[in-house]
Amino acid sequence: MRPNIRPGRIAVHIALVLYTILAIGPIALILINAFKTRRAIFSDPLGFPDARTFTTIGFDQVFTKSDFGLYFVNSLTVTVVSLGLIILIGAMAAWALTEYRFRGNTIIALYMAIGIMVPIRLGSVSILRMMVELNLVNTLTALVLVYVAQGLPLAILILGEFIQQIPRDLRDAARCDGVSEYRIFASIILPLITPAIATVAVFTMVPIWNDLWFPLILAPGDGKQTVTLGVQQFIGQYVTDWNAVLASLTLAIAPILVLYLLFSRYLVRGLTAGAVK
């Protein structure tokens, strides 16, 4: 008996394959061309490096002509601290908004939804003025504060939806046993929303790591540059060192790829949880 293959399902799979190619294609091109000579990059950008075209000159220039290690540490510090604060504050705020009913609960939830719809870059001038008044320009603290504000609305929305799916009987039983609200949150809620936390981590980590806009505005000084901003020194108005640019991008992509592979299992669980009840 021949399987019943619907045309709609075939169209969906074709669309997914095309999207996968569009998403992975640029990353593959960067990784391939990072190990090729400048001539080979432009003559055969889709070809793999061979014995004649293979070179690591781009990586040599990155480590000798720039403070890439410092840029990497700055990006890692900003990303890790921002991510930790977003998950911690977002989880507590989602728990408060979903568990307790108080005056202004709906207004706060609507305010968070507006934070998702309105890009934070629209307030760049006001943010810069505020950071100048607080004397936080050219500090990593300014970037952390901006990224936390940027990531909290989505984190609260995702975590709140997951917390609502947790049976209320678990919380009520813990309260009957005299367990405090803090213990309920730390020992019951957080372990059960691990897939949601992984989802928030992936969706939040990538934009923070790849951002160029706010590092360029708030922390362009020496010693505070992130990876994306440090790469710009190899891009000139008339001459661009493409070997160094591609090598820098490869080194910047590697941590994100590794972390994504580690969290991918939890990400899928987080995206599909609640689809079937």
TrEMBL record:
It is a multi-pass membrane protein. InterPro entries: MetI-like, MetI-like_sf. PROSITE patterns: ABC_TM1. Residues 72-263 form the ABC transmembrane type-1 domain. CDD domains: TM_PBP2 (cd06261). The keyword Ribonucleoprotein does not apply. The keyword Transmembrane applies. It is found in: Cell inner membrane; Cell membrane. Keywords: Cell inner membrane, Cell membrane, Membrane, Transmembrane, Transmembrane helix, Transport. The chain crosses the membrane at residues 12-35, 68-96, 108-128, 140-163, 184-209, 244-263. It holds the Pfam family BPD_transp_1. PANTHER family: ABC TRANSPORTER PERMEASE PROTEIN MG189-RELATED-RELATED (PTHR43744), SN-GLYCEROL-3-PHOSPHATE TRANSPORT SYSTEM PERMEASE PROTEIN UGPE (PTHR43744:SF8). Belongs to the binding-protein-dependent transport system permease family. The complex is composed of two ATP-binding proteins (UgpC), two transmembrane proteins (UgpA and UgpE) and a solute-binding protein (UgpB). Part of the ABC transporter complex UgpBAEC involved in sn-glycerol-3-phosphate (G3P) import. Probably responsible for the translocation of the substrate across the membrane. This is sn-glycerol-3-phosphate transport system permease protein UgpE. It comes from Microvirga terricola. The lineage of its organism: Bacteria, Pseudomonadati, Pseudomonadota, Alphaproteobacteria, Hyphomicrobiales.
